[in-house]
Design goal:
It is built from eleven helices and 14 strands. With 337 residues, the chain is α/β, with parallel strands linked by helices. The chain has a single domain, classed as Spore Coat Polysaccharide Biosynthesis Protein SpsA, Chain A. The protein binds guanosine-5'-diphosphate (GDP) and magnesium ion.
Length: 337
């Protein structure tokens, strides 16, 4: 067996969603492997897109064919019509704050992904963001295809072209600014084995329950990059793959929002890199972020500064949670794995 590195991994473990478009065949494999598939969608005020995201997956992959067993929406307390629309579209809807109540509640998308492991029933979990504007069944079959076809694979991450809206114009490339300016450089510097991931922050990924339950989850935007590091460390790069889903259009965030996101991700990354001996931190990572905004005052531009708090909390591997082990009949000995 060859030594695995980013180069040969990139060649061997990058797939195309088109290779898995035969849904009948996938359902057959699913039956043979006795797999159950849950699609999990984290939401916060997504009334504009949640209906079509659920509908475009449920129709072809759950009603027409039996590839997906459940669609679960885990919500951060939306104040719009997300709940109503999601339920009408046929998904199961749960507020994140109501799941595992004794374990408290944190803000952020990662919190929902973690808590979903307790509610979802599947042994393959597919995570899909709710703000996708060009949703298509390939987002699901592309990610589960490699897992159903190859038992040695345990985790698949999406990649795609990310168009960006500039004014009214949609430019084909240019989305994924935090990816190119922060995460990929950091991976190349400190975790070069992960440098083959084209979209390390993509919100679409799938994996086996026995992987997700054994890694910690960060509650905010740090969740994606820490997850890649943890899966690689614990299970090895060989079980990870990436799948070309062609194109994704979603809500492009403002530069200010991306700046905050990058700060949060950097904090999580540095702590993880520090704990693995890849870099040395001389103190605690900061939680306070000073955002700078500008506004026009007559012909002048006025700048102002605002302090905000950004904190990503680390949730422990779900298998260490007693309620979880009870529900899924997991041996307590696994806690030490
Ligand atoms: N920003 C944010 N998104 C959340 C939260 N809870 C759930 N989400 C969902 O997480 C997904 C990704 O969020 P988004 O803001 O689009 O992040 P981006 O795609 O990385 O820019 C969307 O489906 C959100 O609705 C939360 O507390 N904050
Ligand atoms: Mg988004």
């Amino acid at each position: 067996m060859h030594l695995i590195n980013a180069d040969n991994w990139f060649e061997k473990n990058s797939f195309k969603c088109q290779s898995f478009s035969n849904i009948k065949k996938l359902v057959e494999l699913k039956r043979k492997n006795k797999n159950k598939i849950s699609v999990v969608i984290p939401t916060l005020n997504e009334e504009a897109t949640i209906g079509s995201v659920i509908g475009k997956i449920k129709g072809p992959l759950m009603d027409k064919r039996k590839l997906v067993d459940e669609i679960l929406v885990v919500d951060s307390g939306s104040t719009d019509r997300t709940k109503e629309i999601a339920e009408k579209a046929g998904a199961k809807f749960v507020y994140s704050g109501k799941i595992l109540k004794p374990h408290g509640e944190h803000k952020g998308k990662g919190e929902n992904l973690w808590k979903a492991l307790y509610v979802a029933e599947g042994d393959i979990i597919v995570y899909i963001d709710a703000d996708i504007k060009n949703i298509h069944p390939r987002f699901v079959y592309g990610l589960v295809g490699p897992l159903l076809s190859n038992r040695k694979l345990s985790f698949t991450k999406a990649f795609y072209q990310r168009p960006i809206k500039v004014g009214k114009e949609l430019r084909p490339l240019g989305g994924g600014r935090v990816t190119e300016i922060l995460i990929r450089p950091l991976f190349n510097q400190y975790f070069p084995r992960l440098s083959g991931f084209i979209q390390p922050l993509s919100g679409e990924f799938a994996g086996r329950r026995n992987v997700f339950e054994r890694i910690p989850f960060y509650t905010g935007y740090g969740v994606d990059s820490a997850m890649l590091i943890d899966i690689q460390r614990k299970f090895g790069l060989r079980c990870m793959a990436q799948v070309d889903l062609i194109r994704r259009i979603h809500r492009n965030q403002t530069l200010e929002a991306l700046s905050k996101m990058a700060f949060g991700i950097l904090g999580v990354f540095s702590r993880r890199a520090n704990s693995m001996g890849k870099l040395i931190l001389m103190g605690k990572t900061k939680k306070t972020y000073r955002t700078i905004t500008s506004s026009k005052e007559g012909r002048r531009i006025k700048y102002s500064m605002k302090k905000i708090q950004i904190k990503d909390v680390q949730r422990p591997p779900m298998i260490t949670v007693r309620e979880y082990r009870k529900k899924f009949k997991k041996d307590p000995a696994w806690v030490y794995v």
